[in-house]
Design brief:
The chain is mostly helical. The chain has three domains: 61 residues, no CATH class; 110 residues, no CATH class; 110 residues. The chain has a two-stranded antiparallel sheet. Helix 2 packs antiparallel against helix 3 and helix 8 crosses helix 10. The two termini are 22 Å apart.
Length: 303
């Protein structure tokens, strides 16, 4: 990702939101070198990211002045190194949360209040990130009530389900989505992308093989967006469709995702090339067009 430069760096809004959340976590846990590295990366990004350049530049300048000894680090390229850094950061955050909760009995209720009263998904995710270290009946009851009370951002809903599973909760949880009450089994919630059904995992793999020659950079954006999509769709009829293991399902979703990214990143409107490359003919054509419409609608909602 750090090899892309200039106009090739275009982030989807929710991917941008993810990096904003990561930046906040880095600052909260005093990982100033990593924060500098992330800011340097974000300052190379165009599109929606450009609106934040002045803010990021000012923050980077402050970090350089206040913490000159903190070396700007690039984004982790090795999965094991990245996982180790995440574990260290989580350990630091966990200890801070436990210390604050021990000193202040109102700490958990305040986090729960943020979750219910703040409509900003980023603030809700930050609250969930701290609540993850405070398992117990009060936290579990609050999460179940928050999920069933009214519709929320689907990615935050998914994170709340992950927390419940991580706490060892079992049984059904009611989640409101698109005017419908979904009853989902907590213990079936994937804790990582690798836990999703094989049919879901095959989509970015299929696209990656197709794009490795024609547009290698596309694979990164495809992986990021597909992870968002399956989490946002989790539990819905669209997700059930994504899980289908019949012949052609991975191809049609990979083709739709590929075409959507070509439209978003390169302004390519026609899809003849995409359909030809993935063998989208006959019955697959109709299902591919349905998938493409869903991806376009999801992308529009994120804007």
């Amino acid at each position: 990702m750090s090899d892309f430069t200039g106009d090739n760096l275009v982030l989807f809004p929710k991917t941008l939101d993810y990096y904003q959340i990561q930046l906040t976590r880095m600052l909260e846990t005093e990982r100033y070198g990593e924060a500098k590295g992330l800011l340097n990366f974000l300052l190379q990004c165009g599109g929606e990211a450009e609106r934040h350049h002045t803010e990021w530049q000012a923050l980077l300048g402050w970090l350089d002045a206040a913490f000159p000894e903190a070396t700007a680090e690039g984004l982790p390229t090795d999965a094991e190194d990245g996982a180790e850094e995440d574990e260290q950061a989580d350990a630091v955050l966990r200890q801070r949360v436990l210390d604050r909760a021990a000193e202040d009995p109102a700490y958990l209720p305040r986090l729960i209040s943020i979750l219910f009263d703040n409509e900003d998904p980023e603030q809700q995710l930050l609250a969930l990130g701290q609540m993850a270290h405070l398992p117990g009946p009060e936290t579990e009851e609050a999460l179940r009530r928050w999920l069933s009370e009214r519709e929320r951002h689907p990615l935050v809903q998914f994170r709340a389900l992950q927390l419940l599973r991580g706490f060892g909760a079992e049984g059904p949880a009611v989640v409101l989505r698109d005017g419908e009450a979904l009853t989902l089994e907590i213990e079936a919630t994937p804790l990582s992308f690798e836990e999703f059904p094989r049919a879901v995992l095959e989509v970015p793999e299929r696209l990656g093989r197709m794009a490795e020659v024609s547009d290698p950079a596309l694979s990164y954006f495809a992986d990021e967006m597909w992870r968002e999509c399956v989490q946002a769709a989790y539990g819905s009829n669209v997700f059930k469709w994504m899980m289908e293991a019949d012949d052609g399902a991975a191809d049609l979703w990979a083709a739709a995702l590929h075409q959507h990214l070509l439209e978003k990143l390169h302004g390519q409107a026609g899809d003849e090339w995409t359909r030809e490359q993935y063998g989208i003919t006959g019955e697959l054509r109709f299902r591919y067009e349905q998938a493409l419409r869903w991806l376009r609608a999801y992308g529009a909602d994120k804007g």
